Structure formats: structure tokens, C-alpha cells
Amino acid sequence: MPDPVWQQTLNQKIQEFYDRTTPLWESVWGEHLHHGYYGPYGQERKERHQAQVDLITEMLAWAPDIQPATILDVGCGIGGSAIYLAERYQAQVTGISLSPWQVQRAQQRAAIANLDKQATFVVADALDLPFAEHSFDLVWALESAEHFPDKGQFLAEAHRVLKPGGLLLMATWCHRPVTPATGGLSPQERAHLAQIYQIYCLSPVISLPEYGELAQRAGFNQIQSADWSSAVAPFWDQVIASALTPDALMGVVQSGWQTLVAALASGLMAQGYRRSLIRFGLMAARKPQDSV
């Protein structure tokens, strides 16, 4: 269990990081703060915004069939996924983020899309969700769990707020599986990950098989997972290319040192994928119908 003071400090760092960097990201990339999808083997060339939308649609196609009326978007950014899901399913979507700036911007974007009555946003902590039991049909977490210092606690909270039969659908950054054949993470691998943790305000990531074990422990069943690392790996080369445009470079400089460091760290992510150290994991898990 993480130390509460350390967790509070991490949450503050996450908030400050996204308050500072999100405006520039939106100006360059738009409303989606996540990877793009470039085909199963990462070989499809496509416009970057379309690649990000495709990641959402491919995730939904991969997941078990569901027609949710109520959705919780954990780590909602500026509302990209939440607004998409609200439109697609005509659902009531609630998004949460630690960043007040992101929440305010998400509310603005929902209003522009005439979806402010369907999509609402609040500042909240994923490890202490301010919602009653059995509130949502779908808990959606797209590239947020890597920030959580206690992955098991997040899964327990997701299980609690889901309705019986509800679905958790998530994608997150992982490290490679640790097996007797592959061995534990080397000192060099740990050092590589530690740099990424510091720059992007992450807690230590875990492997995809570990998520499955934690989900089972939290009470989920029908757990399925997939490694989409090849499909999303080209994203970081596109991030690097987009950061080299004159407008983006000026924005990076104006946003301060933390944004500059984050932009330069894109190379660490690209290198991590090439070395198969960093993995992009999907997991779907069902809350049993007989849960009370």
C-alpha cells in the first residue's frame, strides 16, 4: 500500500504536469491524449488524429459486446473519449481527472458539442472514487492506470462502482512480462523506466499478466487481455516529428522546462518500444452478475 503522503505528492505532481502540458498538446494534437492505432502490426500510415480515434474504435471492437447507458471515464483528459462514447452510445458519461484545467476544458468541449447534459466532468482520484456502488455499466480507463500508485486499489474501486454484469475496459502502459525464461528486469531496464516515471509523473508500471491477477483478486471474471505494442509503437515517432515544427517548438519553450523535458523524453518511449521493454496492454474484465 503506497504511503498516503507520497500518494498525495504524486497526485499533486500529476495535476501540475497536466495543467501545464495539456494546452500545448491540444493545440498540436487535438482532444485525444493517448496513443494512436496504426494497424495490427503498426504498418498503416494515417493522419495522427485519425489514428487516435481508431484506437478507441478498435478497443471497442475488441471488447465484449456491451451497450452501456452509464459510463465512467477514469483519467478523462479534456474529454476526447468521454464525448466520443457519449455520442456513440447515447450514454451518460462521467469523466474524472486530477487536473482542474483538464476538467474545465472537457466541460467546455462537451458544451461545444452540445453534449454537456450527457457528459459531465469532475476532479477526483481514481483510487477513491466519489460514486456509489453499482453506478456504471462501463468503466473506461485509457492510458491512466500507469499513474496509479496502487493498481489493485483502482481495480477494486472499478469493481465497486460497476453494476453487476458491468465491464471494465482499459489500456495502459506496462513493462514486459517477467517469466523464468525472460528473467527479471535488468538494472538497465529499471533505469530506463525510472527516467520515464520521473518525467511523466508515473508510479512504477507492472506487466499485463499482473493486471490480470489483480483483476481476479478484485472480484472480476471473464478477464481477457491483449498486447497491442506493435499497433501503437509508431505513435512516438509521430510525437517527435510533431514537436519539431516551429509552432510546437515555440509552445514547448513557452510552456516551461517540464514540457520541454516531456517532449525530449518521447525518444525514451520510442526506444522502450523498440527494445520490447515498454508494452501497451489492453484488459477487459466483467463484474459477475451475482455481485452484491
Structure description:
By secondary structure, the chain is α/β, with parallel strands linked by helices. The protein has one domain (4-286): Rossmann fold. Helix content is 48%, strand content 18%. It has helices at 4-29, 48-62, 80-89, 100-112, 151-161, 187-200, 208-218, 229-232, 234-243, 246-255, 257-264, 266-274, and strands at 70-74, 92-97, 119-123, 136-142, 162-175, 221-227, 278-286. The chain has a seven-stranded mixed β-sheet with strand order 3-2-1-4-5-7-6, with helices on both faces. Helix 4 links the parallel strand 2 (92-97) and strand 3 (119-123). Helix 1 runs antiparallel to helix 10 (246-255). The model has no long low-confidence stretch (mean pLDDT 89).
What would you say about this model in short?
Helix content is 48%, strand content 18%. It has 292 residues and is an alpha/beta fold.
Write the layout of secondary structure elements.
Elements: H1 4-29, H2 48-62, E1 70-74, H3 80-89, E2 92-97, H4 100-112, E3 119-123, E4 136-142, H5 151-161, E5 162-175, H6 187-200, H7 208-218, E6 221-227, H8 229-232, H9 234-243, H10 246-255, H11 257-264, H12 266-274, E7 278-286
Parallel strand pairs: 1-2, 1-4, 2-3, 4-5
Antiparallel strand pairs: 5-7, 6-7
Helix pairs in contact: 1-10, 5-7, 9-12
